[in-house]
Amino acid sequence: MFKKILIANRGEIACRIIKTAQRLGIKTVAVYSDADREARHVEMADEAIHIGPPQAAQSYLMIDKIIDACRRSGAEAVHPGYGFLSEREAFALALQAANITFIGPNPHAIAAMGDKIESKKAAAKAGVSTVPGHLGVIADSEQAVRISDEIGYPVMIKASAGGGGKGMRIAYDAKEVREGFQLASSEAKSSFGDDRVFVEKFIVDPRHIEIQVIGDKHGNVIHLGERECSIQRRNQKVIEEAPSPLLDPQTRESMGAQAVALAKAVNYDSAGTVEFVAGQDKSFYFLEMNTRLQVEHPVTELVTGLDLVELMIRVAAGEPLAKELLPKKGSKATTGVTLKGWAVESRIYAEDPYRNFLPSIGRLTRYQPPREGVSDGITVRNDTGVREGDEISIYYDPMIAKLVTHADNRKEAIAAQGRALDAFAIAGIQHNIPFLSALMQHERFIDGRLSTGFIKEEFPAGFAPRAPGGDERDRLAAVAAMIDGMSNDRRKRISGQMRGRGYAFPPRRVVLVDGVAVDLTVASLGRDVAIDFCDEAGAVRHSIQVRSAWVPGQAVWQGAIDGQLLAVQVRPLLNGTHLSHAGLAVTAYVYTQREAELAALMPVKTGADQSKTLLCPMPGLIKSLPVHEGQEVKAGEVLAVVEAMKMENQLRAERDVTVKKLLAKAGDTLAVDAVIMEFA
Fold it and tell me: Which keywords accompany this UniProt record (predicted)?
């Protein structure tokens, strides 16, 4: 076994690898850029070595700097995590030449499978069913159009060295192929240093299902079941789960057998993932193989009870897979592993779901994840690379954390995920927790009727918090009333200017939940609070009991209403609270009856007219401005291309306009809402 390993990565995956290494008694070495000087993975590791500027191309993608860090630290092996150099044959070969062990597959397997074009050729040769497409490198956008015309639309334009949704576009006609080819090539070069792309048929209403494989250096290869990753936005996975609600045991074994056959064909000897696109009829086609650890590996770990990072380290050290993991002799099965229970993972991103998921950067002024551990048969796990006070920058992937829950069945795992999301408090940046929480309440998701088009189909106009129903509104009004009473009591105790102790609940209140009045009365009953909801005449229409240990200042209200546990994120406002729960986001003002009457007379403020300007919707780098002053631009034409967190975003004209003045230029780094140009 190794005594010291270096992690050639950053963020949550670096922290994840360090945890396993520490448990195994292996010392760790972190590498970091200028932007990560005070990062969590640097703090966790036994040693840390600086490798360059914030840009990945000058730090985390520099093979010579990683090898130099190994020599300086005495690290015997390198774990690449995912992304960056994890699927580079050149990196594995360079480590081999330096007599440093690569904790990943052999260079031949990386070359055969890591390249998306070569992997499809190898899969076809191994008898694995593949999606129709053009497996050669495409020279330019016009060749891409000709190929797409032959294949038939829609098509997927995909980076050969890609992954994580980068360098990937779906096109429904020739115009979109031309645009998508340029964007995919540019993103691929920026993210992977390789601008090659290929084109394949896009399967309509598909599901994304992948098989986890693990092989050793003694010829053993097994699969560890499947993960479903169909909930995607812009080809980026958002929710993953294991197992898949689509598959039956026969289909699972068939997919697993193909994945194992492909891995054996290239002598695969580490953890890897064979990805398939599946039809709703359970037909499936090979997409690609990722020759590395996947972002979503925790769901597999929770349903198998295995530590994939540990398996990778042991395999790299030459150990064979444990006998209990292998299929029994004489069995036709391709694994000896049994799946137990169900796991669901949500990717928490620094992005604004209310502004078309635009990236968000800044400092985490509050970062309070739910409590991890096992309770009442429910497991909560949070893989993260940040702490409260850390900064989210423009240089790297916007993922903050991966929140994972495990239970005996899918329904319970989803419910646990929803509760955990509601208890996850983040402030200082925008984040997608409200959207993730809404997904956990979505009927179609709960029913398992998934496809990669789920988000586009269910949220065609983008995400907006749904309006609360009657019972939901009453529950949120009750929480707001309790918060108001407890806050009043705290103020009273601090000031010393009012007599009495205990909660300062007035007998009658009006709670305006997004402008809808809820009349109620509140009475204290020890730890429980009884709340009566009244009609306009003051008669009680129904009552509930609320219990909570919340105190002013806490970012999450946790308690029970009529015995049902729930968590609500709270942000104080003057005379009220902003509440977020289960995909709902409301503003609740708590008034006396007279205050409510006066509040109804207050004028409504309107925002300033911004129709004459183009604002930068996210912090980012201006990649290009394909317009000039005085140019007439038609609706739908591109005004600017902004790069943020390794993704390029096209800003298009919403209507016909004339460019009056350019206030930015290519290469500028802009803050959110900075003015890019003015219109006449």
Answer: ATP-binding, Biotin, Ligase, Lipid degradation, Lipid metabolism, Magnesium, Manganese, Metal-binding, Nucleotide-binding
Q: By C-alpha distance, which of 379, 389, 439 is closest to 413?
A: 379
**Residue 636, domain CATH:** 2.40.50.100
Give the residue ranges of DSSP H helices in 218-307.
249-265, 297-304
Domain count, the chain: 5
| Contact present, 362 and 429 (Cβ < 8 Å) | yes
Residues 483, 503 contacting (CB under 8 angstroms): no
C-alpha closest to that of 163 among 343, 346, 397: 397
pLDDT digits (tens, 9 = 90+) for 591-622: 988 888 888 888 877 766 778 999 998 888 89
pLDDT bin (cut points 50, 70, 90) of residue 496 is low
Kindly give the interhelix angle for 249-265 and 116-125, rounded to the nearest 10 degrees: 110
Q: Can you say whether the dihedral through the CA atoms of 159, 162, 167, 170 is positive or negative?
A: positive
Which segment of 67-76, 191-200, 583-592 scores lowest on mean pLDDT?
A: 191-200
Q: Is residue 293 part of a domain?
A: no
pTM for the model stands at 0.83
Count of Cβ atoms closer than 10 Å to residue 97 Cβ: 9
Asked if residue 196 belongs to a domain, the reply is yes
Residues of 172-187 as b/e, b for ≥16 C-beta within 10 angstroms? eebebbbbbbbbbbbb
Amino acid of residue 642: V
- Residue ranges making up the domain that contains 519: 470-599
526: pLDDT confidence band, cut at 50, 70 and 90?
low
Given a contact cutoff of 8 angstroms between Cβ atoms, the answer to whether 89 and 114 are in contact is yes
Hey, which residues are catalytic here? 288
The stretch 227-253 carries a mean pLDDT of: 95
Query: Which residue is associated with the tokens 């520490």?
Result: 22
Structural contact between residues 535 and 519, judged by C-beta atoms closer than 8 angstroms: yes
Q: Are residues 439 and 478 in the same domain?
A: no
